[in-house]
Specification:
elongated, 6-stranded parallel sheet, Rossmann fold, 2 domains, alpha/beta
């Protein structure tokens, strides 16, 4: 017990490093309870017919990307594998480059820009921009991120407002996000709206899911991991959740052992002191 209490902290750091690193190299697939919101999200996206259009609203930036970007990655992979066309738009200045990164693997794999995917870029104006975009997609966006004429792109052929998309998925890292979409577009136009949110925003957004205003809801990195498991393709999100789980277990283990060692040595010291006095 004395050795446990005085364990070299470098050993603890090394154990933590190993436990966190191994799942990142090869996901373990530690079981996760799939939430109903993630199931609804998966079923809604899986039911979109091939050749249809879906809109992604990328409302996050690099600071919130670790918690939410894996959701966008796995859902875009799902839709691309089902030959669904996806238009991506953002209402934050950091969004266009994030969208480019999301599209890059699929364009490299043979998807055609302007037919299967399009980056509508950043639209300034916050909640007002969301309202205008919802009612007039091409008139509000005007051109794609690269300056191309949207009217010449097959993916947007016949699109007037967002009701011409099969559904809309909002990835919410900060405002403007889910609430603005609900107030300005989902409520007035009656679209099917789904949301992937950062973990800290779940309490804020959950009432919209329970009320039925959101048809699906995924929650942070865990939501992305659940989605990967539903697709039977454990990837980055599952690996990161495995690493997080093992790290937490290791911390709990060291806390328990440390307390056992502390109270054992404390009791031993007390007994020795009383024995000395006698």
């Amino acid at each position: 017990m004395d050795k446990l209490v005085n364990l070299d902290r470098r050993i603890i750091y090394f154990v933590m490093l190993v436990l966190v690193s191994l799942p990142l190299l090869s996901p373990l697939g530690i079981p996760l309870l799939i939430t109903q919101g993630t199931r609804d999200m998966y079923e809604q996206l899986d039911a979109v017919p091939a050749g249809s259009r879906v809109l992604f609203s990328i409302n996050y930036d690099p600071t919130s990307a670790p918690d939410i970007a894996p959701q966008a990655v796995v859902m875009l992979d799902h839709l691309m594998s089902n030959n669904v066309n996806v238009a991506l738009v953002c209402f934050s200045a950091a969004g266009p480059n994030l969208i480019e990164g999301l599209m890059a693997p699929h364009l490299a794999a043979g998807k055609v820009y302007g037919e299967d995917l399009v980056n509508l870029g950043f639209i300034a104006g916050g909640e007002t921009a969301i309202r205008n975009f919802g009612r007039d997609v091409i008139g509000t966006a005007k051109a794609d991120y690269h300056g191309n004429d949207l009217k010449s792109m097959p993916i947007l052929d016949g699109v007037t407002d967002v009701r011409d998309f099969e559904l809309v998925v909002v990835f919410h890292g900060y405002n403007p996000g889910v609430q603005e979409w609900i107030r300005q577009v989902q409520g007035p136009l009656g679209i099917r709206l789904l949301a992937g949110v950062v973990s800290v925003s779940v309490p804020e957004v959950m009432p919209f899911y329970t009320s039925g205003q959101l048809a699906g809801l995924t929650q942070g990195l865990r939501g992305a991991a659940e989605y990967e498991l539903l697709m039977d393709k454990p990837g980055t999100a599952v690996a990161k959740m495995d690493a997080q789980s093992l790290g937490h277990l290791a911390i709990i283990f060291f806390i328990v052992i440390g307390n056992i060692g502390y109270f054992s040595t404390k009791g031993k010291s007390k007994a020795n002191k009383e024995g000395g006095e006698n």
